[in-house]
Design brief:
Main location: membrane
Distance between the termini: 63 Å
Shape: elongated
Strand order of the largest sheet: 6-8-9-11-10
Helix content: 55-70%
InterPro entries: HAMP_dom, HATPase_C_sf, HATPase_dom, His_kinase_dom, HisK_dim/P_dom, HisK_dim/P_sf, Sig_transdc_His_kin-like_C
Low-confidence stretches: 362-369
Structural class: alpha+beta
Mean pLDDT: 76
Keywords: Coiled coil, Kinase, Membrane, Phosphoprotein, Transferase, Transmembrane, Transmembrane helix
Largest sheet: 5 strands, mixed
Order of helices and strands: HHHHEEEEHHHEHEEHEEHEE
EC number: 2.7.13.3
Radius of gyration: 64 Å
Subcellular location: Membrane
Length: about 525
């Protein structure tokens, strides 16, 4: 546990009374702990300074009073004169010597053996008539000084301790009277408020912070009492209203059930309309293909008819020559060559027609229904592109396929073909409109169990403000000009609901538009389903 957590835990467990006691004790003891040593040091310095001054004064007195006895060489008078100084209990010894021979004149040290010290020594010269005649040495013992300092320390500490205890007691009494007791009263009042007892007024006849706190609690009590009174009224009104609420709920439930039935019917109608729109769109695309196929078949069949009529005429001419007996080898050779060339032309035209009819037959079956089957993506789109070629040949636009031949799908070729047809028509009508040339390109890439189809053109693009609305039903920029606004909406629904994929569009103005279609190789749904477009699910 860190120091901060320990401090937080201690602080949360300390009561108000203990916190006040600790604050008072620390508030008084900390300054005392700083000031007492300082004061004692000051006293000691003062006592030592006084002791030093006394030492200087006493040795000065001795040098004066012993001048005459030392000059007259009367040790008895000198001993009597030094007794005045030696009467001071601090004096340990007095020694006087004569100069210049340094002989001992007097010596008084009877107390020195009983004193412990430490000792301080001072020496002063004795003069008479301006001549140095001797030297006095005064030794002081600090026993009494140390005892005095210890006595002063005990007295000062006792005084400080008593003052601290009395101050703490006095402060605690004042705090108990002015803070702790009122706080307890306010706590009891607050507990009553928490328990919902709001009839007992809260009042403290004081003008300090606690008095303001009591006034605030009283205002809170009154506000709560008022709020509870309003709540009682509201509860009574709710009880009265709940009597009629059940019947209103039943009525609203019946109305909602009726609305839900209407919505279900409307949803069913919308699903039917959507299926019908998809069927109509397929039929419209199929009709356009029929016109294109008819136009494409007209050329090879017309050529076959012309070759057949020419061959018939040549055959009749040969028969006439045979009947008249005028046939020659060269005529027979020329007829055989003509018949061979005509047969080649007939076979070529008939094969082209048969190929177109086969493509149309498969596409027509796919477009008129949503039968599920396995198919090659490249073959299916090539067949559809061949049928769209007749309408694209009238425009300056080209369609390019870049589809790998190994992509096989188990899906619905009809809806997929309609999606492809809608994208081509959308590019021709909207993206490439008014341009002298243009390219459309459809590429595919296999990605695991999915295939990514990318259809793009280099047309004028889609404005940024409507690019997010192109899949909305009935949204078109050709409104009133033959556009229904259903092509891309049906495309979106077929991709998401039938083919189980998703489609995204990106466009840059004047750079073209790109549709990205992600389809599963195996379409979702029941393989035995006849037509998923007619299913509401």
């Amino acid at each position: 546990m860190g120091f901060q957590q320990l401090l937080t835990a201690l602080r949360s467990r300390i009561s108000l009374r203990l916190a006040i006691i600790l604050a008072v004790v620390f508030g008084l003891t900390v300054p005392a702990a700083v000031l007492v040593p300082y004061q004692l040091n000051t006293i000691e310095e003062a006592v030592r300074s006084k002791n030093k001054d006394d030492h200087e004064r006493l040795v000065g007195i001795l040098s004066v009073i012993l001048s005459e006895p030392l000059w007259q060489i009367t040790p008895e008078i000198a001993n009597i004169s030094s007794e005045v100084v030696y009467s001071d209990p601090r004096v340990a010894s007095i020694e006087v010597i004569t100069l210049p021979d340094r002989k001992e004149f007097i010596k008084n040290d009877t107390r020195r053996h009983s004193q412990k010290g430490p000792f301080t020594i001072k020496t002063r010269e004795i003069t008479h008539g301006g001549q140095v005649i001797g030297e006095v040495t005064l030794t002081l013992a600090e026993d009494l000084l140390q005892e005095s300092l210890r006595s002063d320390f005990r007295r000062y500490m006792t005084t400080a301790a008593l003052s601290l205890i009395l101050a703490i007691i006095f402060i605690l009494m004042v705090l108990q009277w002015r803070l702790v007791k009122p706080v307890k009263v306010l706590m009891e009042k607050s507990d009553r408020l928490a328990n919902g007892e709001l009839n007992d007024p809260i009042a403290l006849n004081r003008e300090d912070e606690l008095g303001h706190l009591a006034s605030s609690l009283e205002a809170t009590r009154q506000a709560l009492q008022h709020s509870f009174g309003e709540l009682e009224i509201k509860n009574q009104q709710l009880l009265e209203y709940s009597g009629t609420l059940e019947s209103k709920v039943r009525q609203r439930t019946q109305e909602l059930e009726s609305v839900n039935q209407n919505l279900e019917a409307a949803l069913h109608n919308v699903n039917n309309a959507q299926a019908e729109l998809a069927r109509v769109e397929r039929m419209a695309a199929l009709g356009s293909m029929v016109a294109g196929v008819a136009h494409e078949l007209n050329t090879p069949l017309g050529n076959c008819l012309l070759v057949a009529s020419t061959l018939e005429e040549e055959t009749r001419r040969l028969l006439k020559m045979v009947e008249e007996g005028q046939i020659r080898r060269s005529d027979l050779t020329r007829y055989a060559e003509t018949a061979l060339d005509s047969t080649k032309l007939l076979l070529r035209g008939l094969q082209q027609s048969a190929h177109l009819v086969g493509d149309f037959k498969q596409v027509a079956v796919d477009q008129s229904s949503a039968q599920r089957r396995r198919f090659g993506l490249l073959v299916m789109l090539q067949e559809l592109s061949a049928l769209l070629h007749s309408s694209l040949r009238k425009t300056p636009f080209t369609l390019e396929l870049d589809i790998p031949a190994d992509i096989e799908m188990d899906s619905y070729p009809g809806p997929l073909g309609q999606v492809f047809t809608n994208l081509v028509n959308n590019s021709v009508i909207h993206g490439l409109e008014g341009r002298s040339s243009g390219q459309m390109r459809c590429s595919a890439e296999r990605m695991g169990d999915y295939v990514m189809l990318i259809f793009s053109d280099n047309g004028k693009g889609i404005p940024p403000d409507i690019v997010n609305r192109i899949f909305e039903p009935f949204f078109t920029t050709k409104f009133g000009q033959g556009g229904s606004g259903l092509g891309l909406s049906i495309t979106f629904n077929m991709i998401t609901n039938v083919l189980g994929g998703n489609i995204n569009v990106s466009s840059i103005p004047d750079k073209g538009t790109q549709f990205e279609i992600r389809l599963p190789l195996t379409a979702p749904g029941d393989r035995e389903a006849k037509d998923p477009l007619l299913s509401p699910d």
